[in-house]
Amino acid sequence: MEGHMHQETGAQIVLMLPFLLMIGSYICAGIFSNRHYKAWPVTRYVFWTVGILCAVVAVVGPIANRAHEDFTMHMTGHLLLGMLAPLLIAIAAPITLILRILKVKWSRRISRLLKSRFLHVLSDPVVATLLNVGGLWLLYTTDLYLAMQHSLFLHVLVHLHVFLAGYIFTVSMIYIDPTSHQRSFIYRGIVLVFALGGHGILSKYIYAYPPAGVPQEQAESGGMLMYYGGDAIDIVLITIFCYQWYKASRPRTTSTFQPQYN
Question: Residue 66 and residue 77: Cα distance in Å, rounded?
Answer without folding.
Answer: 10
